[in-house]
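Why do we care about 3D structure at all? Because function follows from shape, and shape follows, mostly, from sequence. That is the central idea of this module. The next example makes it concrete: a single protein chain, its amino acid sequence, and then its structure expressed as tokens.
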Amino acid sequence: DVQLVESGGGSVQIGGSLTLACAVSGSTFSSSYCMGWFRQAPGKEREGVAAVDSAGTITYADSVKGRFTISQDNAKHTMYLEMNSLKPEDTAMYYCAARPFDFGRYNYWGQGTQVTVS
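And the structure:
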């Protein structure tokens, strides 16, 4: 099984920065997993924000390109999402997720961390 725990959310002013962390644990987890960050704002559908696949290829949603950076520390089994130039529309619950393959649904999800920009 795999467990994911997010941290680092909070309230920030417009134009500010936050870095989210996702700590990964579990006997079946490996560095070949595909990892991603998602967010969901009230009344809106969940959307993908950024992802990194088993080859290290990174993708971003158009809405965050140039502002957000996804990274991993494999030694610490932790994934990060550095968020800069934050906007009110970035306000959402942010979730990290993992899947054992570069395709298909994400099998494992964290509990989420709230980001509020005002």
